[in-house]
Design goal:
Blueprint: E1 2-6, H1 13-22, E2 26-31, E3 42-45, H2 55-58, E4 64-67, H3 80-97, E5 102-108, E6 117-119, H4 130-146, E7 152-158, E8 160-162, H5 171-180, E9 185-187, E10 194-199, H6 200-211, E11 218-222, E12 227-229, H7 230-240, E13 246-248, E14 262-264, H8 267-273, E15 287-293, H9 300-307, E16 316-321, H10 328-333, E17 340-344, H11 351-360, E18 366-370, E19 375-376, H12 380-388, E20 393-401, E21 407-409, H13 412-415, H14 422-427, E22 436-439, H15 440-446, H16 458-469, E23 472-483, H17 500-534
Parallel strand pairs: 1-2, 1-4, 2-3, 4-5, 5-7, 6-14, 7-11, 8-10, 9-13, 15-16, 15-18, 16-17, 20-23
Antiparallel strand pairs: 10-12, 18-22, 19-23, 20-21, 20-22
Helix pairs in contact: 1-6, 3-4, 15-16
């Protein structure tokens, strides 16, 4: 699919382009500047406010136009909103008249005006700022324009965005700027109003998913669906980023057009996120999700429900329990889903042994590891399956969160500078098993695990084998929420209490097993060849 993205160099545009490229879309990016645009995109410098006979042909006849371009988005009463309105309309009208078949436009909650509660596609609009008025007018104009045409129209209504705030203009950016200027206080409102906050990374994922499907259209809230007080969100942001600044509550009055509680009804975006795109023929491929658990009653339900919608009818969901004494088994059995196969670890207890038990019972062509307390992105299986068609092991990036799924780091790959490097992984492995998926060829090679689980853990073993003898691909955008809390069974590779001597022993043990396993497999393959010759 060929996607034209306007405003491509902007705060949101640069993130969306990366998501689209990672989903194998062809991207034509246009803006005045291209410093933030992924080099994989085709960049065309253009001022879309200029008059041109055929913008559609000029941009190589895209399948979709994602219109993000907008000036002064954070200056709500800027006069540019209304003065620019006709230019936006003329540009979009030109694309439609010349052949564009799908158009998606960035909207805003400020179209609504004052409202208390959830906002859905039928919520009446009474905008109270120049920004809201202009956006609302553009939406209504384009709706009329496409009404008589067979054109897919998607209005992406965004709410309140945070993340990557060094380049934005939100309150989070202003706090960053205040810290940079050496200020130790920040003038603030009461902070009591509740809004729908979403990270720019999650927003980009939702936008890219919306335009990759055609079944659900019209006004679509791209949002979290949860109201959070401004004070809570900003205090969390300051604490998480360890910023040396305090809020001066009550310094400013709340704006008269700000609602005490407003958030998005996210039912449409949830449906879209569960639409399965046909990257691979799922009718001929069987997936095994292998989850190992122990006393996971607090989070396992959320994890199971993030995985089940991604499975086809012929897939299997193997859950190996290591002797839980809480409600874990009861929760698993409550689903009564034939794809779920609950088994019990009869071997030596421990997460490595339990993990191996789940893998030994798998029968799928491709195996996905799962922890009991994380949450998967709704497209994790789909995206990783595509990569597995050309690779033996695929590892996705993840967002690290606290126990309430609030992000504490947006990219593990960036946090630890992770690379597709055997040497670096031998020195220290920071790849997570819960972010891995692999084919049966690799699984047959790594099983059984080396016997000393204290010296060699399962995820370290598999990634070491794969990097040494197989094809490995890193997907450098997050498809996984990695939840950290007080009861995690591993430290996630973030710290180590091993002595230098023990670290050396562990590496020697790993290298020995890599060499020995290769010899063992080579001997087995030679035996099979000889048997074929003699038969």
């Amino acid at each position: 699919m060929k996607v034209l993205v306007t405003g491509a160099n902007g705060y949101i545009g640069s993130k969306v382009i990366k998501q689209l490229l990672d989903l194998n879309c062809e991207v034509i990016a246009t803006d005045i500047d291209n410093k933030n645009i992924d080099v994989r995109a085709s960049y065309i410098s253009a001022n879309i406010f200029d008059i041109k006979d055929d913008w559609y042909t000029f941009f190589s006849k895209p399948d979709v136009c994602l219109h993000l371009a907008w000036r002064d988005g954070f200056i709500h009463n800027s006069l540019k909103h209304m003065s620019d309105l006709s230019f936006h309309f003329n540009f979009l009208n030109n694309l439609i008249l010349n052949g564009l078949q799908q158009i998606a436009i960035m909207g805003t909650v400020h179209e609504i005006g004052y409202w208390e509660g959830a906002v859905d596609e039928n919520t009446p609009c009474n905008p109270l700022s120049q920004y809201g008025i202009a956006k609302n007018a553009l939406r209504k104009s384009i709706e009329l324009l496409v009404k008589e045409k067979k054109i897919i129209f998607q209005w992406l209504r965004a709410f309140y965005i945070y993340g990557d705030d060094l380049i934005g203009n939100s309150i989070f950016s202003k706090i960053r700027q205040a810290v940079k200027e050496g200020k130790n206080t920040f003038p603030f409102t009461t902070g009591k109003n509740k809004y729908d906050f979403i990270s720019v990374e999650e927003l980009a994922k939702q936008i890219s998913t919306v335009i990759n499907q055609k079944e659900i259209n019209g006004i679509i809230n791209v949002c979290s669906g949860k109201p959070v007080s401004l004070a809570e969100q900003v205090e969390w942001y300051i604490t998480y980023n360890n910023l040396p600044i305090k809020l001066e509550y009550g310094k400013y009055q709340d704006r008269e057009y700000d609602s005490p509680c407003i958030y998005g009804d996210n039912s449409k975006i949830k449906r879209i996120l569960n639409i399965e795109l046909s990257f691979v023929n799922r009718e001929t491929i069987k997936v095994s999700v292998c989850l190992y658990c122990f006393n996971g009653e607090k989070f396992i339900k959320e994890q199971i429900e993030s995985i089940l919608p991604q499975l086809s009818t012929n897939d299997e969901f193997i859950i190996s329990d290591d002797g839980s004494t809480d409600r874990t088994i009861e929760i698993i059995k409550s689903y009564e889903d034939p794809r779920i196969k609950l088994i019990f670890n009869q071997n030596k207890h421990g997460w490595v042994s339990n993990n191996e038990n789940s893998l030994k019972h798998s029968t799928g062509d491709y195996i996905f590891w799962a922890d009991q307390d994380d949450v998967w992105s709704n497209k994790k299986i789909e995206v990783m399956l595509k990569a597995l068609q050309q690779n033996n092991l695929v590892i996705c990036d993840c967002i690290t969160t606290d126990e309430n799924l609030r992000p504490t780091d947006f990219s593990r790959f960036k946090q630890f500078s992770l690379k597709n490097s055997f040497v670096k992984t031998i020195i220290r492995n920071r790849f997570l098993g819960c972010c891995m998926a692999f084919d049966r060829k690799l699984l047959d090679f790594v099983l059984p695990f080396p016997q000393n689980h204290r010296l060699l853990e399962s995820d370290t073993w598999i990634v070491s084998v794969a990097l040494r003898y197989f094809k490995v691909k890193l997907i450098d955008f997050p498809l996984h929420y990695y939840r950290r809390h007080t009861n995690n069974t591993s430290n996630g590779g973030s710290k180590s209490s091993n002595t230098i001597f023990n670290m050396i022993i562990r590496r020697i043990y790993r290298l020995f097993n890599l060499y020995y396993r290769k010899l063992k497999i080579a001997k087995y393959e030679k035996h099979k060849i000889n048997n074929r010759k003699n038969s």
